[in-house]
Amino acid sequence: MGIVRLSGAGCRAIAATLLGKPPEARHAHYLRFRDADGAVIDDGLLIFFPGPQSYTGEDVLELQGHGSPVLLGQLLRRCLALGARPARPGEFTERAFLEGRLDLAQAEAVADLVSAGSEAAARAARRSLEGEFSRRVDTVVEGLTGLRVWIEAALDFPDEEIDFLAAPELQEKLQRVAGQLDALRTAAERGRRLVDGLHVVIAGAPNAGKSSLLNALAGEDRAIVTDVPGTTRDLLRERIRIDGIELTLVDTAGLRDAPDVVEREGIRRAREELAKADLVLAVVDATATGSHALPLPAGVPVLWLHSKADLLATVPPPATRADGRHLWLSARSGAGLDALRAALRDAAGLGDGVEGSFSARARHVDALRRGAEALARAAAQLHHGAGELAAEELRQAQDALGEITGRVDADALLGRIFADFCIGK
Ligand SMILES: Nc1nc2c(c(=O)[nH]1)N(C=O)[C@@H](CNc1ccc(C(=O)N[C@@H](CCC(=O)O)C(=O)O)cc1)CN2
Ligand SMILES: Nc1nc2c(ncn2[C@@H]2O[C@H](COP(=O)(O)OP(=O)(O)OP(=O)(O)O)[C@@H](O)[C@H]2O)c(=O)[nH]1
Ligand SMILES: [Mg+2]
């Protein structure tokens, strides 16, 4: 089946024309869809949802026909002739947002739900769609509002006996909100990884066994493997799933000073990709002697993988060294791959399961980071007794968080001040 869906004030008239009588609300009418000359296009169901009880909150009309692109195209053209226009991408959800039926984070969750690559990601998107993420953002925003109310009041009544700005309760309140914001950031970062999938880049010297590792994890012969150093040049991306968690693995050209222009370009791309990684799998040949130093970007977590362990007399157990965690494995025998999968799950921050997670995006994580930074600055200003500056930083924190849900409400603060304090005395 296919559905032509319409939203807006013209729906009722279009429904009446197609049906030959006014539609009943939320009733499935069976009918023949006809073109302007009365020729039958298709038979199907017509459902009219009067606003505001509809997906967009406006009048909505659904025409459910056979799932043929040709027939649906004819049905669509019939609707256009009756006064409709084609929707922009995401416009139904945009209208639902503008009608106040969804906030921004919920609207984004609709897209995340549709594109979810795993059951865990779909469940997380459902939670965001149902407002779980938004509610937690709102809780922090309320906490920030409470702090501002306190500070603004202290500034308005400087002659009080007690110095409200130095009150320990204010510090406690601030710590509590900062703690909530921190926990929310961690959760949102998890949610972003669930939606985007962890971005894992395989790096190492030529011939270290990078492409063989990609093939072993993908369970497919995706990358070319030869004993010629410098086999891989282009980036090769492969989406794999571990326990319902999706991640992108990227195979790269072996890092070395290459004389060949093509290989040099491959190495340049490898470095570019490394800078964007959530995690680097640094592959070193376990049978090679000498230093395994690699030119890796600073600040990116690294997991060291000693490959070709099937060639060793004894396989060392996993170890933690100054430069990070080390695992020994063999793409050929499969030894150590389960330990690697477990490490990847941990790296996704999802080691303890994904239950209770909600979906989030880089935009949200960034807004939460800016909010937390502004809150930290507010605490510092308060420490110096600079109440006005602290209040301004708190407002910035609030604005940053407001971007997530699309609710930035200046009047909310005034409302709270007048509700909580008897200023009119
Ligand atoms: N046929 C069809 N299936 C669909 C959709 C659709 O638009 N049409 N959806 C498109 O995304 C999803 C469901 N989302 C929807 C969300 C709200 C309403 C709606 O009419 N809400 C009203 C009535 C609620 C009620 O009766 O309890 C409301 O909220 O007031 C409809 C679909 C998935 N399946
Ligand atoms: N014995 C053994 N040989 C392996 C293993 N993994 C890879 N090799 C061999 O090592 C050689 C290089 O493997 P590749 O996977 O192509 O190495 P690479 O790191 O992708 O090399 P470049 O693309 O050239 O940078 C090949 O001959 C593989 O067969 C392993 O687990 N055990
Ligand atoms: Mg390779």
Automatic annotation (TrEMBL):
Its cofactor is K(+). One of its GO terms (biological process) is tRNA methylation. Homodimer. Heterotetramer of two MnmE and two MnmG subunits. Its main location: cytoplasm. (6S)-5-formyl-5,6,7,8-tetrahydrofolate binds at residues 5, 62, 101, 425. PANTHER family: TRNA MODIFICATION GTPASE GTPBP3, TRNA MODIFICATION GTPASE GTPBP3, MITOCHONDRIAL. It is found in: Cytoplasm. Mg(2+) binds at residues 211, 232. Its EC number is 3.6.-.-. Transmembrane segments: none annotated. Exhibits a very high intrinsic GTPase hydrolysis rate. Involved in the addition of a carboxymethylaminomethyl (cmnm) group at the wobble position (U34) of certain tRNAs, forming tRNA-cmnm(5)s(2)U34. Pfam families: MMR_HSR1 (PF01926), MnmE_helical (PF12631), TrmE_N (PF10396). Belongs to the TRAFAC class TrmE-Era-EngA-EngB-Septin-like GTPase superfamily. TrmE GTPase family. Keywords: Cytoplasm, GTP-binding, Hydrolase, Magnesium, Metal-binding, Nucleotide-binding, Potassium, tRNA processing. Binds 1 potassium ion per subunit. Residues 197-349 form the TrmE-type G domain. This is tRNA modification GTPase MnmE. NCBIfam families: mnmE_trmE_thdF, PRK05291.1-3, small_GTP. GO terms for cellular component: cytosol. One of its GO terms (molecular function) is GTPase activity. K(+) binds at residues 207, 226, 228, 231. GTP binds at residues 207-212, 226-232, 251-254, 330-332.
